[in-house]
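Appendix B. Chain record.
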Amino acid sequence: MSTEWSDRIQIADLADEPELSNELQSLAEAAANSGPARDVVLNFGGVSYLNSSNIAQLLRLRATLGERGRRLRLCSVGDQVWSVMLLTGLDKVFVFAPDPATAIASLQIEIEETEAGA
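Structure tokens predicted for this chain:
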């Protein structure tokens, strides 16, 4: 389930399949939409595994957000999902936070720094 935290940040509380694929697809479509893009926090607290399709969706979402100048944070990643991230090298591709509050705070700090520098 996806929640708009602010006009700049959206949080998605993810669950295992089939909800995971559906939510990642919805987020990618929203990010590609011509409307205002938001930074996205993906809460993996309810996800116990990732498959190759999920990984492809995550990479596509990251690319789409990056093209729109937006950021992605992954948080609350469990041991099994973290193992997949390590084995695939995605621990170096994505930015992780221990929990949603920390992910949101890090995005808010980056937004403020970006706006102050503009």
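Further analysis of this model is presented in Appendix C.
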